[in-house]
Structures are given as C-alpha cells and as structure tokens.
Specification:
Blueprint lengths: L9 H10 L4 E4 L7 H10 L14 H14 L2 E3 L14 H11 L3 E6 L3 H15 L5 H10 L5 H9 L7 E5 L4 H9 L15 H11 L6 H8 L15 H8 L2 H8 L10 H5 L9 H4 L2 H13 L12
Parallel strand pairs: 1-2, 1-3, 3-4
Helix pairs in contact: 9-10
C-alpha cells in the first residue's frame, strides 16, 4: 500500500485511536534518524503522547506514561527511550527486557542509519549541546556500550516478537512516510527538522567552547548560516575514526537481515560500502575560518555576559 502524506482529519485520528486502543505503539528513535519530523507529524495529527526527557529516566514514571498512551490510544515517541547518545544507549538491553516483561501487545519501532553517517550526526549533536567530550572519549564510550554492534541492538529489539508484540528494526530516507506504513495511518508532512551545521562550524564551536566567550545556543543559532568557502565534503571525525566506523559495514549488512519482513533491504544499505574517508574538519580548519566565525558572532552582539573572552 502506498501512503501519501497529507493533512489528517480529526475523524481519522479519532478512528485510529479507537482502533488501536488495546495496542501500545512506541517509537524509540534512535537519535538523528528523523525523530523530530516524526514527532511533529504525530503531534499535528493529535496522536503523540506529550512527554519530557525525564519521563524516560525512571521506569516507574515511564510505565505510567505507557499506560496513559494505551488508554488514550496515543503513540509514545522519544529518542531517549533506549537511553542517550553520550554513552550509546547503554541501558537499552535492560530497558527492552523491562518492556518485554511489563507490557504485552506492544509495537516497538526503531530506525537505524549506517554507522559512519549515524555517529557523525551523533557526535556533531553532542558538540552543539556543549557536551565536553573528545573524539577519543566518544569512541571509548561507544565501545563500552553493550549495543555498540548494531546487530546486537537489532536482535534485542526483535526479541520482543511474540504472538502479541512486535519489535521492528527500520531504515528509511523518509521516516514519516515509513512510519505511516507501519501504523497504517496517513501522517501529514512535517517541515520541522534539526539543522545540520557545516563540519567546520562544528569545529569552530569546539574551539570556541574552550574560551567560554559565547553560549552554545548562540553559537548554534548564528553559525548554522555560516558557509565557509571550503567544500562541505569534510567530516567532524578524523580519517582514522571514519575508517573505524567504515569497518563496521559488515555489521551493517548483517543487520539488514534482521529488518522487518515487509521491508526490503534498501539500496542505501549497501551503498554505504562505497563511502570514502573525507578530510577532517579539524585538519582543514584555519585561522581565517576562526576569524570569520568570530566576526559573525560578534556582529550578533558582544560576547555573553559573565563569560571569559579568550580570543
């Protein structure tokens, strides 16, 4: 069946909530896979259960939210359901085991991306948030996670499959359209998405964070429009780290075999093998880039009050 995204009517949304009231739908991210767009689409359709990040840190609090969603026929969607990017979802095994024990008639949907693409996006987001983590510290946190291997994460998700529950591992260039197919409901288009900064803008943020002259919110807001002349074809990672994640392509192709049965392995799954390393933003960044970024920030106003200006 083809799903054409458009505006869902109140009648359609009510009918969906009545039809699925005995089933619990949970979208569990991952981060950086289109979750923002999907949540906006679900919200505009009246199908999203309101939640905050803290709801997913306590299983007692989460259980209450899931029960509310089931009773009200709403969908739970949070990229924090399986944990956090900063430690690569280290709580995922425990959380999935808890979900399997405590709830039945669940459909859990998780979206993945190729390793290098996903980890570049994740590390970039951590820089934008001001998380004090170096590249080597990030790699170490990933390696320590029990689900660093996507195959293991996919196996844990599909262990939810019983006569009443379903665990789905998905890949999709358009998550809203794919999720419509999963829940059998035409969701509306969403214009909301997170803005990706140029890798050199992220390197500028990383360097200026050390001075404390500007807040991360200000740097993220101002530098999203900064487009240095250097080609965008750079990476926030070193070429060594890029190669490390590219060597995980065999894991990625093995994970493809764990996709839900009604989704064919997409071309992008194998095309990831053709990726080549790119120059590192750290190696490409120059004093001229730093001066340009600083000039743009200063044009937006003086450095933030009570912050040390180190340039």
């Amino acid at each position: 069946m083809t799903y054409k995204l458009g505006k869902a009517s109140l009648v359609d949304s009510c009918a969906f909530r009545i039809r699925t009231r005995s089933r619990l739908f949970v979208h569990a991210g991952l981060h950086k896979t289109g979750s923002t767009s999907l949540q906006e689409s679900l919200r505009s359709s009246g199908l999203l259960l309101p939640s905050v990040r803290a709801d997913f840190r306590s299983e007692d609090r989460l259980a209450l939210r899931l029960k509310q969603a089931r009773v009200r026929g709403l969908i739970v969607s949070s990229e924090h359901f399986l944990g956090e990017m900063v430690n690569f979802y280290s709580i995922a095994p425990r959380r999935l085991d808890w979900l399997r024990r405590e709830f039945d008639s669940v459909t859990l949907i998780v979206y993945l991306k190729p390793h290098l693409e996903w980890h570049e996006s994740a590390f970039s987001q951590l820089i934008q948030q001001g998380t004090p983590m170096t590249e080597s510290e990030y790699i170490r946190s990933v390696e320590q996670s029990p689900v660093a291997d996507f195959r293991e994460l996919a196996r844990l998700i599909t262990r939810l499959n019983t006569s009443t529950s379903i665990g789905l591992v998905r890949w999709a260039p358009n998550v809203v359209e794919d999720f419509s197919r999963v829940i059998d409901f035409n969701l509306p288009h969403s214009q909301k998405r997170n803005i990706s900064l140029h890798p050199l803008a992220l390197e500028a943020m990383r360097r200026m964070t050390q001075s404390g002259a500007f807040s991360h919110d200000k740097m993220r807001r101002v530098l999203k429009s900064w487009a240095p002349e250097t080609p965008r074809n750079t990476s926030i990672f070193s070429e060594e780290t890029q190669s490390y994640f590219m060597r995980k392509h065999s894991e990625w192709l093995d994970t493809a075999e764990i996709l839900s049965s009604f989704q064919e392995v997409p071309p992008g799954w194998e095309e990831a093998l053709k990726t080549e390393t790119r120059p590192s933003a750290r190696d490409t960044f120059t004093d001229e880039h730093l001066s340009s970024a600083l000039a743009l920030l200063r044009a937006e106003g003086p450095p933030d009050r009570h912050r040390n200006v180190g340039f």
